[in-house]
Design a protein that fits this description.
Elements lengths: L12 E2 L2 H18 L5 H14 L1 H7 L3 E2 L1 H9 L3 H7 L2
Antiparallel strand pairs: 1-2
Length: 88
């Protein structure tokens, strides 16, 4: 599952843990939906399990520059490629 670590360069603000987790969760949700896993309970369980395993990715995300528009873009993304573009 993806976590777009490049994040938006330049302006913006340092990404907080909540924002990084939101990026990770959205990426994971999109990946699971691509595998036809849509039951909300199963999606939540799998995201939680993977989040623990990928804690290092979230930790590396915290403090990197992010813009409000990039976060809005991530929330609206429906494919992994869209998430990546949001964070370029």
């Amino acid at each position: 599952m993806l976590v777009g670590l490049p994040l938006a360069a330049g302006c913006g603000h340092p990404a907080g843990r909540e924002e990084c987790e939101a990026i990770f969760d959205r990426s994971a949700e999109i990946e699971l939906r691509a595998q036809n896993i849509v039951d909300p309970k199963i999606v939540e369980e799998r995201i939680a399990a993977v989040r623990d395993a990928r804690k290092d990715l979230i930790d590396r995300c915290v403090g990197r520059r992010i813009t409000d528009s990039a976060m809005a873009c991530v929330r609206q993304a429906t494919t992994p490629e869209q998430v990546d573009r949001c964070l370029e």
